[in-house]
């Protein structure tokens, strides 16, 4: 496994993780409403395409001899969880709040989570949480643009 030093920004966010253990301090969460045009398989395929083509989603942090470093995990196709909140606004709101406030940081694990949702109104949506170590507001926007473009066109650098 080839590891690389953390950037200055990544080191800062990691220190926040260590100081504020079990907090959501570095979470960047978002809910994308997708309507009724797409199904689970299409959304899941677009998410896999995103992770395949964007190494930042495969960055993992490791620690050896008390020294932190990062590496890019190989791509693995994933069946992202599907949660059904149809006509269940109360549990949907509770779940969203809980998820946005959990700590997703872990060594040698993904620093993001994707959930495909059936929202209370029956439309599909995508909920994501990404750790600031691998993402920021700008990269989230770029990722969502890539995801939507693939979802609607299906022709961007297909997984080979």
Describe the protein.
With 160 residues, the protein is of the alpha+beta class. The chain has one domain: Chloramphenicol Acetyltransferase, CATH 3.30.559. 34% of the residues lie in helices and 24% in strands. The protein has 4 helices and 6 strands, in the order H-E-H-E-E-E-H-E-E-H. Strands 1-6-5-4 form a 4-stranded mixed sheet, sandwiched between helices. Helix 2 crosses helix 4. The mean pLDDT is 94.
Write the layout of secondary structure elements.
Elements: H1 8-19, E1 27-35, H2 40-53, E2 59-64, E3 67-72, E4 82-84, H3 89-100, E5 112-118, E6 124-131, H4 137-153
Parallel strand pairs: 4-5
Antiparallel strand pairs: 1-6, 2-3, 5-6
Helix pairs in contact: 2-4
GO molecular function, one term: catalytic activity
Organism: Staphylococcus succinus
Pfam families: Condensation
Quote the distance from N terminus to C terminus. Answer: 23 Å
The level 1 CATH classification is: Alpha Beta
Give me the side-by-side strand order of the main sheet: 1-6-5-4
Elements, N to C (H/E): HEHEEEHEEH
Integer-rounded radius of gyration:
16 Å
Helix content: 25-40%
Task: Please provide the count of β strands.
Answer: 6
What is the name of the CATH superfamily? Chloramphenicol acetyltransferase-like domain
Shape: globular
CATH T-level topology: Chloramphenicol Acetyltransferase
Tell me what the CATH architecture is: 2-Layer Sandwich
Mean pLDDT: 94
* Number of discrete helical segments: 4
Sequence stretches where pLDDT stays below 50 over 5 or more residues: none
The structure class reads alpha+beta
| Main sheet properties | 4 strands, mixed
Strand content: 15-25%
């Amino acid at each position: 496994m080839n590891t690389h030093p953390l950037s200055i920004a990544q080191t800062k966010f990691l220190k926040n993780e260590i100081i504020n253990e079990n907090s959501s301090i570095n979470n960047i969460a978002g809910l994308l409403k997708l309507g009724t045009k797409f199904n689970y398989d299409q959304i899941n395929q677009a998410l896999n395409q995103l992770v395949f083509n964007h190494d930042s989603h495969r960055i993992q942090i490791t620690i050896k001899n008390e020294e932190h470093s990062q590496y890019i995990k190989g791509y693995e196709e994933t069946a992202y969880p599907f949660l059904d909140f149809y006509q269940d606004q109360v549990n949907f709101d509770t779940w969203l709040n809980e998820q946005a406030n959990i700590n997703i940081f872990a060594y040698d694990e993904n620093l993001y989570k994707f959930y495909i949702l059936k929202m209370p109104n029956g439309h599909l949506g995508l909920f994501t949480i990404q750790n600031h170590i691998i993402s920021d507001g700008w990269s989230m926007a770029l990722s969502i643009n890539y995801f939507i473009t693939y979802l609607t066109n299906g022709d961007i650098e297909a997984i080979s």
